[in-house]
Amino acid sequence: KAGVTQTPRYLIKTRGQQVTLSCSPISGHRSVSWYQQTPGQGLQFLFEYFSETQRNKGNFPGRFSGRQFSNSRSEMNVSTLELGDSALYLCASSRIGGGGGSYEQYFGPGTRLTVT
Amino acid sequence: TQLLEQSPQFLSIQEGENLTVYCNSSSVFSSLQWYRQEPGEGPVLLVTVVTGGEVKKLKRLTFQFGDARKDSSLHITAAQPGDTGLYLCAGEAETSGSRLTFGEGTQLTVNP
User: Fold this and answer.
1) CA distance linking residue A111 with residue A62, whole number of Å
2) Which residue of B has its CA nearest to A87?
3) Which of B42, B100, B102 sits opposite A103 (nearest CB)?
């Protein structure tokens, strides 16, 4: 079974631009979560989508948004990029939602975003 | 607010040594997971513990979930260079719904 794939793997953008990152979950997984990883803050939860609905959201500004399609593929968008948005963006999929220890996540390799 | 605290933050040991990594919180978790991440890759799930007091073994790795489900530990016996990586604990808090909270990680280096 193929793992979680993310595209692109590397991206360089300029301040003020916007960016769209893509994630394809493991076949059969309906939940997709996005995380931002930086050396200073660790892994920070952005949001989670389940059956095309945003089910949970972290403490990030509205410049960060996402969506999920009917085939469970997900995209996240960051508008008006800032230098501090430079990070590794990780997508993770899960077969079902959380609760009772069922929330095991399978991560993709990430997209390394550099904002200059 | 960091709900999960990992210690130590960095650990550099020689091959063959034993080590323990700790993950502590004041929150109760319905489950707790351990991941290992290597440079340039996403975290890989190692184990999930669900029941208070649960102990799981994965070859040379032993994972324990605290009785109160607020803390966990990872013990590695006879560490090998291949164990090098960033070890992350992640908890699914009972009140957080469908989200995981990650600790900041323990960077382990095993020197040959």
Assistant:
1) 20
2) B40
3) B100
Give the pLDDT of chain B (112 residues) as one tens digit per residue.
Answer: 447 999 999 999 999 999 999 999 988 888 899 999 998 899 999 999 989 999 999 999 999 999 999 999 999 999 999 999 999 999 887 665 657 889 999 999 999 9
Q: Do A101 and B48 touch (CB under 8 A)?
A: yes
- CB A47 within 8 Å of CB A77: no
Task: Tally Cβ neighbours within 10 Å of residue A83.
Answer: 9
SS3 B83: helix
Distance from C-alpha of A65 to C-alpha of A19, rounded to nearest angstrom: 11
Pick the residue from chain B with its C-alpha nearest to A101. Answer: B31
